[in-house]
Amino acid sequence: MTETISSGTTPRRSSGKKGAAVPNQSSGKKTAAKAPAAAKVGQPGHGLRIERVYTTAGVHPYDAVNWESRDVVMTNWRDGSVNFEQRGVEFPDFWSVNAANIVTTKYFRGALGTPQRETSLRQVVDRVVQTYRKAGQEHGYFAGDEDAEIFEHELTHMLIHQVFSFNSPVWFNVGTASPQQVSACFILSVDDTMDSILNWYREEGLIFKGGSGAGLNLSRIRSSKELLSSGGNASGPVSFMRGADASAGTIKSGGATRRAAKMVVLDVDHPDIREFVQTKAREEDKIRVLRDAGFDMDLGGADITSVQYQNANNSVRVNDEFMRAYEQGAEYGLTARSDGSVIDTVDAKDLFRQIATAAWECADPGLQYDDVINDWHTNPNTGRITASNPCSEYLSLDNSSCNLASLNLLKFLKDDDTFDHGLFTKAVELVITAMDISICFADFPTEAIGQTTRDFRQLGIGYANLGALLMATGHAYDSEGGRAIAAAITALMTGTAYRRSAELAGIVGPYNGFAVNAEPHARVMRKHAEATGQVHTLEEFDKAILDAAKAEWADCLEIGAVNGWRNAQASVLAPTGTIGFMMDCDTTGVEPDLALVKFKKLVGGGSMQIVNNTVPRALHRLGYPEEQVEAIVAYIAEHGHVVGAPALRPEHYEVFDCAMGERSIAPMGHVLMMAAIQPFISGSISKTVNLPESATVEDIERIYYEGWKLGLKALAVYRDNCKVGQPLQDAKGAKKEAAAKEAAEKDRLRRAQQGIGGTEYEAAAESVVAQVAPVVQTVIERRPTRKRLPKSRTGSTTSFSVGGAEGYMIANSYPDDGLGEVFLKMAKQGSTLAGMMDAFSIAISVGLQYGVPLETYVSKFTNMRFEPAGLTEDPDVRMAQSILDYIFRRLALDFLPFDVRADYGIYSAAERQRQLETGSYLPADADTDFTELAQSAPIERHAPSKAEPEAEAPAAAAQPAPTSAAHSSMELLEAKLGHAADAPLCANCGTKMRPAGSCYVCEGCGSTSGCS
């Protein structure tokens, strides 16, 4: 796969490795790079020679895999409705249920129920890989047909074995009748003219329509303090942001299942910078006022569209001059856009504090460090880098795009716990070659973007599962050892990518813009190589990787000096949300593990809680015997953390630190990891530094300052519960729990009145306890009493059918209208099923008579999934996941008040129809709309604290799991830790999402909150 011969060069002489071409040394000096003519297909001495690494000659990769047929049925756990159904799809037997579900729902093309619908992973992979092979042959990448076939087989093997994945647009579009868009990341530009501003709206809309995101810098637009040619005042960039935000929200509401993804950047010397900094923070104030007035201001709520700037991530572009003024407490000048003159001055410390305060209040703005970005820019002679994509990992020229692919790092961890750097190198070679080929046939949303991308051929290879790799090998994420490994792997990846790019330049030519940028491009390559030489290794594990990286960078410089390079950019670190699930990764991008316990879907339906597979592997690596490993894993399964785990030494706790939990990684630990790998990334890193709710403005100010000192290109923060849209989920959960406890207590007291002594007895008992407790400390234990139904009782009989299985339910009530008895008949008397249903009915009935609230049973048994399941004859419950799911939905509709069952998403057919017609589940004359009330619980807002920045909040103790079932890893984490995690619900399926880089991703359906 790696042997390369290029026109006008001789084979490499000294390194002993295959894979490149080097200059002819006879003259003793290097000549200026020239773009050789593209080789013809099959011409001897031209093109890549591909060797087999994963595959065997004569055996197709598909034939080496066991395939199985599966049924993919996706339901909304909130109301049981079916979101998607496709039966009989084909996947390798080692693919998880979640990976297969997401690929089927997201990446299979063709209308459901038609012959054109894809039904197998083979079809999806063939559609993509064969397109790449054909384009590679047509554009002269391969030495011959045999090399093209090996390329196809190797790529196929890596994809079906989850070694890597292309970004989502490739799976959406390549090989279909749609435009062949392969890029996920876009950067636009806007000038200070109305035509350009209106064109900005149009281009952004086209990109949003295609499901991607874009970013741009508004600093060319005149400020509101400057004059127009007509003599009036300019509107300023912030005013035009309103129109763009409204456009993004409209396009989203026109059919997309996620919010539009966009980035807006403004330079720190723009006269409107203070207004820009405050835009989203002031809108948060508005959201709180409207929420407290009863409006639905939840993320995706009916009234959230009344506030502005919610569809964009905002970033301030700071430069070294400003940061030095901040250090010195000096004044800083704001300059006019028209002539560059200083028209206003600000105190740099005060402005930096305003930025930190706004980020404390609402997580915006982030920072982009302009001088660092442009110091590592390979094409400064063409133009500066002024903006990024929405997640800040792609930083390049205006009107450009980048296609991404990510490698699964755990696939290169060998059984002896060493990293196979040789295999990793070969994988990078193949993937970067495929990514470059894609630009040859790709389509783009605008001609300007297409032209720039074809001229500079920006690529974004990256990786996922770094956090899992470090834990599996016994390394703490926040440690010198962990950072050394990450730096070495990243240096090896980018060095190999650029070395292959130089080889490709010798075959099909360097990128069109290379000639005018040859010197700065080579300078940046030397900077990468020098940074690689400065990495300090701690053990043989990372030393071997770093040695390989140094060799790759040496070859890269040698080959590039003659051939030039094929790509202006090679690597980024993206969020890897949806494709991370496709590869069955435990961790996304550069992130640590979210938590030690996970929510796993099972074949045939249902789910279970598991401890991450990396945990036992790490324990074995650290030297624990099997019996201790089992005990520690069992402890983690119960508690969700390692603190106090039997036999686990405290010095090993840090290995199991996660992004969230009892021992969460400190914010500066995330910043230091970013700093360790930034020198080896062409672009930047999609990652948000999460801070606890107790963090102060000073904490954020310090992190932003340290990000500049450490040489980061971009940095964003998120303080827990700083935004209204996410914490409302917490408020609703807290309100629901409090209401349930209150209802249970009232029910217990009511039943006790007819039991032994009633409330009078309880009052007397409390009086006795108060009198004797100081002396004897006697404890009076309160026991529930059973309230039996009268001999003559009110009841109803319901005939039902679930998935073809028929039965009857008899529900009897107390005279004061409370459910007290349930009988279920499903089969002939004497059968096992009939006996089990009778026993279950008696257990439920006795529980009801002892005071167990019906709501408790509803929360436990709705959404329980087993056969028989499917359609019912009940118009109020059209689909049930099991008999019990149907029974308790029906009982909830018959016996629970609206506000209680609304929390579980249980509505009658009439209520659902009314909501579609009027926007409310309740009639117009109803006193209260409990849906809106549940979404408008007040949240206390704290003023920024002035505590010392070094102060750390005490770790919260683990709490018992709540009674409600988990439906994602985030909810499982909440159950283990006893508090709600700060993440939104998926707009597509209702599952609580989890962080992935600087956005969120849904484990249920693969949807993301903005990043492709």
From TrEMBL:
GO molecular function, one term: nucleotide binding
Stretch list, region Disordered: 1-43, 941-968
Record field: compositional bias (Polar residues): 1-13
Keyword Disulfide bond: yes
EC annotation from Swiss-Prot or TrEMBL: 1.17.4.1
Signal peptide: none
TSCPD domain location: 789-893
Pfam families hit by this protein: Ribonuc_red_2_N, Ribonuc_red_lgC, TSCPD
Cofactor: adenosylcob(III)alamin
Chemical reaction(s) catalysed: a 2'-deoxyribonucleoside 5'-diphosphate + [thioredoxin]-disulfide + H2O = a ribonucleoside 5'-diphosphate + [thioredoxin]-dithiol
Biased segments, Low complexity type: 29-40, 952-968
GO biological process: DNA biosynthetic process
SUPFAM superfamilies assigned to the protein according to its UniProt record, in alphabetical order: PFL-like glycyl radical enzymes
InterPro entries in alphabetical order: RdRp_reductase_class-2, RNR_2_N, RNR_lg_C, RNR_NrdJ/NrdZ, TSCPD_dom
Domain Ribonucleotide reductase large subunit C-terminal, chain residue ranges per copy: 183-718
Gene3D superfamilies: 3.20.70.20
Keyword Transit peptide attached: no
Keywords of this entry: Cobalamin, Cobalt, Disulfide bond, DNA synthesis, Nucleotide-binding, Oxidoreductase
Domain Ribonucleotide reductase class II vitamin B12-dependent N-terminal: 72-162
Family: Belongs to the ribonucleoside diphosphate reductase class-2 family.
Function description: Catalyzes the reduction of ribonucleotides to deoxyribonucleotides. May function to provide a pool of deoxyribonucleotide precursors for DNA repair during oxygen limitation and/or for immediate growth after restoration of oxygen.
NCBIfam families: NrdJ_Z, PRK06556.1
Full protein name: Vitamin B12-dependent ribonucleotide reductase
Species per Swiss-Prot/TrEMBL record: Actinospica acidithermotolerans
